[in-house]
Amino acid sequence: MKFILYAIYGCIIGVANIIPGVSGGTMAVILNVYDKLIDSVIGIKKHVKESLAFLIPVAIGGGLGIFGFSKLLKYLLENFPMPTFFFFIGLILGTVPLIFKKIITSADGKKKFNAYTLIPFAVFFGIMIALSFFNTENSSSTQIQLDFINWIYLFFVSALAAMCMIIPGVSGSMILMIFGFYSTVLGAVADIFKNFSGSVMILIPAGLGIVVGLLGGVKLIDVCLKKFPQMTFAAILGLMLGSLLSIYNNSGFAFNIQGIAAIISLLFGFAVAFIFGNEKLKQKFSKDKK
Q1: Which of 38, 86, 183, 236 would be a feasible disulfide site paired with 266, CB 3.0-4.6 Å?
Q2: Is 111 helix (H, G, I), strand (E, B) or coil?
Q3: CA angle (287, 102, 132) in 5-degree steps
């Protein structure tokens, strides 16, 4: 029974992870398995049996969620890019209050804004704005030129995305989108049975990066969140807000029927992210489970 339950949790987290702006970490918190997930990854060497008993069904469920939902997202990006990208923008904006609250909350739980948090925010915001002028994301493109440089680049971007997946409120898919690889990886997953060799050539560096990011990054993220939580979340907020220009540019927004649909989609995305990031909702969900 636990295997099936953990697989369902993994499926929900997996679906969340492929939607830019929706955090798999947040879903894990809502499902009340976030601490167990982190502890299982960190303690896998010491408690192999217990860790694998949890991680294997979660990984299976996550894989099913990713492969099952990727085709729908690919279809939406290819046929309705404007509303889809604006939905992503809404999701990111809806997550901002959650991240901002963490920035102004000190380690002792008191509300306190520290001016030094503006430094990591400004640095990462500036980096993302600069990158937006070089962003190559294309909603209709699912392939990249598979030279050695792109393999290495995709590996490191995937590792960074995996590290971000661990953090509640931050979307790993959003990182892929910021660096121009989201449609490529999504297309490779969606078309794996149609174009197996081409998809595998993309998914190998992406998969290796994700494994390295999860195993190597979980401790780094854990240390950063424990020792420098406000600065860490300030940097995350800079990444998120700085990415909006790039996503907007990729949407090809125009004032037409799709443009109106895009605005409605943005509002809907904001509402979804805001509700799922709401602390009271998480607390209520946890109480209901108990």
Answers
A1: 86
A2: strand
A3: 120
Find the angle CA(90)-CA(224)-CA(206) to the nearest 5 degrees: 60
Count Cα neighbours of 173 within 13 Å in the Cβ-side half-sphere: 28
Two tokens, residue 127: 């980096």
Q: Strand pairing partners for 108?
A: none
Residue 102 near residue 229 (C-beta atoms within 8 A): yes
Question: Of 48, 46, 50, 39, which Cα lies nearest the Cα of 2?
Answer: 50
Across the range 160-178, mean pLDDT stands at: 77
| Residue 111: φ, ψ to 5° | -75, 120
Tokens of 77: 């990006």
Which residue do the tokens 């939902």 mark? 69
Q: Is the confidence at residue 285, as pLDDT, over 60?
A: no
- Separation of alpha carbons 32 and 39, rounded Å: 13
Coil/strand/helix, residue 167: coil
Residue range 232-255, pLDDT digits in tens: 888 878 877 887 887 787 778 888
